[in-house]
Amino acid sequence: LLGEPKSTSRNEWRYGHKGSFVIQVSGEKAGLWHDFELGKGGDLIQLYMRETGCDFRTALERLSREYHMT
User: Fold this and answer.
1) Is the pTM of this model over 0.90?
2) Which residue among 3, 51, 63, 67 has the highest number of C-beta atoms inside a 10 angstrom radius?
3) Do 34 and 46 form a contact (C-beta atoms < 8 A)?
4) In whole angstroms, what separates CA 60 from the centre of its chain?
5) Helices 44-52/56-66 angle, 10° precision
6) From CA 27, how far away is CA 24, in angstroms rounded?
7) Could you tell me if 65 and 59 are in contact, meaning their C-beta atoms sit under 8 angstroms apart?
8) What confidence category does residue 62 fall into, taking pLDDT thresholds of 50, 70 and 90?
């Protein structure tokens, strides 16, 4: 969805020119992201919605179909 991260650590993946976009991959905030340039963040479904431009229902349908979730 976002391509290769600019850097990775045990707890997070960083994206963007300055690494200002962070996805927490483990720890207390696992599954959350934050864009420090825009001051926005959320969970992984909200990230999918942001990156694809779809609404919540469509995101759930696509993710369910793509990842065989029930």
Assistant:
1) no
2) 63
3) no
4) 14
5) 100
6) 8
7) no
8) very high
